[in-house]
Design brief:
With 318 residues, the chain is of the alpha/beta class. Helices cover 39% and strands 15% of the residues. The chain has 12 helices and 12 strands. An 8-stranded parallel beta barrel has the order 1-2-3-6-7-10-11-12, surrounded by 6 helices. It has a two-stranded antiparallel sheet with strand order 4-5. Helix 2 packs across helix 3 and helix 8 (235-248) packs across helix 9 (252-263).
């Protein structure tokens, strides 16, 4: 199988059974060994489908350790791992946990999580601040920025941020201005982008012009792109997506992923599949191309960014 350079795999859903999402089927029954086995199977299928970019984090429950163990079965230097620091998973696989993750952008947390993540070298290529925000002050913390610059130079890895929230574009602009020893620190940006939140589009040309890598997450808008009676405000969008799904003989998920690939050129779009069936459906993104008319129709469904994120906040962990 040839390498798929535009589709990556995000491991959150195979590392912890709950996520902010609208669940399509699968539910964790408490069997942790079976959950791990399924995670390995999804990683292996992703590899066999040509995916070589894998995104993980300590905050994704078992995910980072699953990748560490899975990599022991591979000798492929083309496998690229991106991981993060800044979140700790605390739910202990309890579906009723009041708190699932704790955010901490401190030098102590960076050093602590790096000690585990560095085991991913030499496949570790991207090291990310997990959900950088203005509120934590992480983009102004000289001790952290200097430490990241050291890791970048010492291990020849890209330093990146992931973003979420209504002001993610402002956060990226701030990050672009961060320099250490007169060199830009951040090489890559993992950003929420989809048919509903298209805010990244305005900054895409600038990022490409600065030779930055763009990784797209939440391309299916946490499941909101599938017809749902809770979101009747999207009924017109659902109708168009279903029409395109039938036109190209692929799932709505593949249409959504393709929209991201075609509108944010040269990006890596992450599949967040939790099982092999969903992953294979996502991978059909390589089998077709949306027409310009299709793209323009979908662009019309962009919503106000603040409204998008307020709606997302109402979604449950499940």
């Amino acid at each position: 199988m040839n390498e798929n350079k535009t589709l990556g795999f995000g491991t959150a859903a195979i590392g912890r059974p709950q996520y902010i999402n609208i669940r399509q089927g699968h539910y964790f029954d408490g069997d942790l060994e079976a959950f791990k086995t399924q995670g390995y199977a999804v990683l292996e299928r992703a590899y066999n489908l040509g995916i070589r970019y894998f995104d993980t984090a300590p905050g994704y429950g078992l995910a980072e350790q699953l990748l560490i163990d899975w990599l022991k079965t591979k000798t492929d230097p083309k496998i690229k791992i991106a991981t993060k620091w800044g979140y700790t998973y605390v739910a202990n696989f309890n579906p009723d946990a009041a708190i699932h993750e704790v955010k901490e952008h401190s030098l102590k947390k960076l050093n602590e999580q790096w000690e585990t993540s560095k085991v991913l070298i030499p496949n570790l290529k991207v090291y990310q601040i997990h959900s950088a925000t203005f509120e934590t002050g992480v983009l102004e913390n000289d001790a952290i920025l200097n430490r990241l610059a050291f890791l970048k130079n010492e291990f020849s890895i890209d330093i990146a941020i992931t973003t979420s929230g209504a002001n993610q574009i402002e956060v990226i602009k701030k990050a672009l201005d961060v320099s250490v020893a007169n060199e830009q620190l951040f090489d890559a940006f993992q950003v929420t982008y989809n048919i509903l939140d298209q805010s990244l589009y305005e900054l895409h040309s600038e990022l490409m012009g600065q030779n930055k890598t763009v990784i797209i997450k939440e391309a299916i808008a946490n499941g909101r792109l599938f017809r749902n009676e809770r979101f009747q405000n999207y009924n017109k969008l659902y109708t168009v997506l279903e029409e395109l799904s039938e036109k190209y003989n692929v799932g709505i998920d593949a249409v959504a992923l393709k929209f991201c690939q075609q509108t944010i050129k040269d990006s890596i779009v992450l599949s967040g599949a939790s099982n092999v069936t969903h992953l294979e459906s996502n991978a059909k993104v390589t089998s077709f191309k949306l027409s310009e008319n299709d793209i323009e129709r979908l662009k019309d469904f962009a919503v106000n960014t603040t409204n998008y994120w307020n709606e997302r906040k109402q979604l449950n962990w499940n």
